[in-house]
Amino acid sequence: QVQLVDSGGGLVQPGGSLRLSCAASGSRFSIDAMGWYRQAPGKQRELVATLTSDGSTNYADSVKGRFTMFKVNSENTVYLQINSLKPEDTAVYYCYADLSDYAGNEFRSWGQGTQVTVSS
């Protein structure tokens, strides 16, 4: 069983910054990729950032230049640094991890979500 815990959301003013984190715990798995989705009220879920096991990152056009996803070596934790926040960034942010177990089974785990609210 793999558990993801995401955190770091909050209320910030436009132009502010936040750093979200997503920690994976459990045993007997490898991480193939991790990423972040967000979902605002009344809108479809949007993929905002991904980080693969080879260190490659991809970002949605709406966040390029403002969001940075990175991983600290030796930790099963990824971070999403969010700068120059805009009101339209307001959403619940969910991290996910694409995992493989030692039997070669692939599966996706999700964090519980963390609320980001951008408002003056």
Report the uncertain regions.
none
| Strands, count | 11
Average of pLDDT: 93
Helix percentage: under 10%
Note the main sheet.
Answer: 7 strands, mixed
Alpha carbon gap, first and last residue: 41 Å
Query: Structural class of the helix and strand makeup?
Result: mainly beta
Q: How many alpha or pi helices?
A: 0
Order of helices and strands: EEEEEEEEEEE
Spatial shape: elongated
**Strand percent estimate:** over 45%
Task: Give the radius of gyration.
Answer: 14 Å
Describe this structure in words.
The protein has 120 residues and is mostly beta strands. It has no helices and eleven strands. It has strands spanning 2-7, 10-12, 18-26, 29-39, 46-52, 57-59, 67-71, 77-82, 91-101, 106-110, 114-118. The mean pLDDT is 93.
Task: Describe the protein's topology.
Layout lengths: L1 E6 L2 E3 L5 E9 L2 E11 L6 E7 L4 E3 L7 E5 L5 E6 L8 E11 L4 E5 L3 E5 L2
Parallel strand pairs: 2-11
Antiparallel strand pairs: 1-3, 3-8, 4-5, 4-9, 5-6, 7-8, 9-10, 9-11
In short:
This protein is mostly beta strands and 120 residues long. The protein contains no helices and 11 strands. Strands 2, 4, 5, 6, 9, 10 and 11 form a 7-stranded mixed sheet that branches.
Name its key features.
7-stranded mixed beta sheet, 59% strand, elongated, 11 strands, 0% helix, 120 residues, 4-stranded antiparallel beta sheet, mainly beta
